[in-house]
Design brief:
Pfam families: DUF7615 (PF24590). The chain has 173 residues and is mainly alpha-helical. The chain has helices at residues 12-15, 42-49, 58-112, 121-148, 160-165. It has a domain at 81-165. α3 (58-112) packs antiparallel against α4.
Length: 173
Amino acid sequence: MEDSDGMPILNAEESSPPVAGVTVLGTEPQYPYLTDPMVDNELQRAAESVPIFITGDHTEMSLKFEDEIDNSLLELKKSQEAEYRLAEQKLYSQKDYILSLYRQLESDRSQLADPNPVSDISSYSVLLANITNRVEQVKREEEKFQTMLKISKGFRKAPANIKEHFGLPPPAE
């Protein structure tokens, strides 16, 4: 708005002296109630476009901060619960897989120990190779399982190789 001389009429924010201890953006330090509309000052224009919020109600701010903390902790809890469910599912799945390998190994060993000998030597060799391979597979899967158990420190602290066992992508670099 302008007065009859074409000079801008200052609103209350621009024309009132500053409150003690509060800096009003867009004003000069010596004469805070005076601004020169003819000066091309980008900083001043930018500062004027920023809304000025002054509140003396610390109770309101405390409640706002409490809400932000509660929301943040709730999100953390949700993400940790999701991580827990993932870890639980993958660990039990790995345990079940290892136990199935043990059952297969036991079945192969029982065939080998059968009092009725295997009819030909090639079947015996295949069975023996299967048992040897299965034993190696069980060892690898047990090692993987022991590595996976280290997730107890949390996914964020877990090395990339542990995260990989849970199907999680490696951290972005």
